[in-house]
Amino acid sequence: MLAQRLGVHARTVAEVREKRHRLHLDLALRIRSLHRDLFGIDPVSQGIRPADAARVRTAAAQHTLKN
Question: What predicted TM-score, i.e. pTM, was given to this entire model?
Answer without folding.
Answer: 0.66
